[in-house]
Amino acid sequence: MGTLFVVGTPIGNLGDISLRALEVLRAVTQIVAEDTRRAGLLLKRFEIHKPLISLFEHNEALRVDWVLAALESGDVALISEAGMPGLSDPGYDLIRAAIDRGFRVTPIPGPTAATAALVVSGLPTDSFVFLGFLPRRSSERRSLLESVAYLPRTLVAYEAPHRLAESLADVEAVLGDRQIVVARELTKVHEEIWRGLVSAARAHFADGVLGEITLVIAGSPPEPAWDESAVREALHQAMVEGAGTGAATREVTKLSHWPRREVHRLALEIARGLRTADARSE
Fold it and tell me: Quick one: which of 78, 85, 217 has its CA closest to 158?
């Protein structure tokens, strides 16, 4: 049985490819690539001559069985258009299927735009949330941003250049005027790493932009924790207005930054009190 090698390739500068990646690409019997044209340029640059087959978003389900059959008789390398396969790129279904079938799956680490942008952002790197590509529709994009609005962790996301202005507007509307880094064309000739507030970024990129874009956004600023009386008051008000204990707990946890378990304990206590008061009034 062969091995499926998940091979990281350069996100721009071809000099970033690793010696091990070249070694593996030269040794496997088959290379599976998101974009065979781009892969062909990479392989030609390093004089590697191997059979290529495409695997992209719209044909991955059809290609999985073919690749699994190829793994029965030899090693296969999976590469994306740029960076690490499976990370906001095709490959997950194939990797999952290979694991389930019992094939060895091993990574050959390489460049990734998300971590490259993060480490030069100047924002905290000890804990972050990777959001992948932001949704195309504003309503869905805002919903995603709302779900992470209260997280203190740095946020990292990919965006297409033609949607950058709309996305920055949504970021400011949902997350506020936070610090943001717009990393464009990383490792390429026209690399740009812009740092500042979201409002300033909107002005800077108002005339449009080209290239691959990674956004690094500051996490939610710390807020003073509510005291217990404030938590109780908010829970009481929510339940008087008709919210159940679960809904009240979720809302007050988000607003107060208290541990959910503690908020839930207080919610149950308040709910019992309200039921007792209702019983007495009957």
Answer: 217
